[in-house]
Amino acid sequence: MARAGLTAERVTIAGAELADEVGFDHLTMSQVARRLGVRDASLYAHVRSLEDLRGRIGLLAADEKTIRIAEATAGRAGKDALVAFADAWRNYARRYPGRYTATQIPIEIDPELAANAPGPRRAVELTYSMLRGYGLAEPDLTDAVRLLRSTFHGFVALEAAGGFAHKRSPQDSWARALDALHTLLEHWPQSTEGDFV
């Protein structure tokens, strides 16, 4: 019988907190059970497996990150929107490293949960909306989304791993990278491809 007060949401939040502490890849059901003061078996009344829990954490994190980005970019356009978007992304990754990881790797997610989760869909809408402010259309929109994601994720991953040993402040490099991205987006090279299919 499930412990009173234990819900899928509580299990997911406990798992997310532990993922931030121990790393998403090191998360176990036993750790979550200990955090909640229950036996491992009690968790399975609320989540089917570790993979199910990982998927739920990914959806939770996508929603949290998207809310922060939406709040940061509200009413902004152009470079202001780009910087606010990027800073919100980086700040989330730094504050919640385990949850952030869950938004960056492929995870098997229950289709019903995924269909009802607003975070991933809203993230795409926010990103495309911000980039349309630069006058981009397909296929350039998709290419620009991939460039931004690669730049943001690459930077925060290297920063988290201690990969910036040079004496220059990572913050200064981050600001210059955003300046460069803004310039590139304003002068995006014209596509030579045919119609996007």
- Dominant shape: globular
**Terminal Cα separation, in Å?**
52 Å
What proportion of the residues form beta strands (DSSP E)? under 5%
Mean pLDDT: 92
Question: Could you outline the blueprint of secondary structure elements for this entry?
Answer:
Blueprint (H helix, E strand, L loop, with lengths): L7 H15 L6 H8 L3 H4 L6 H24 L4 H18 L1 H6 L8 H5 L2 H15 L7 H21 L9 H17 L11
Helix pairs in contact: 1-2, 1-4, 4-5, 4-8, 5-9, 5-10, 8-9, 9-10
What features would you describe in this structure?
With 197 residues, this protein is mainly alpha-helical. The chain is built from 10 helices and no strands. The mean pLDDT is 92. The protein starts with 7 loop residues before the first helix and ends in an 11-residue tail after the last helix. It is globular and about 55 Å long. It has helices spanning 8-22, 29-36, 40-43, 50-73, 78-95, 97-102, 111-115, 118-132, 140-160, 170-186. Helices cover 68% and strands 0% of the residues. Helix 4 (50-73) packs antiparallel against helix 5 and helix 4 (50-73) runs parallel beside helix 8 (118-132).
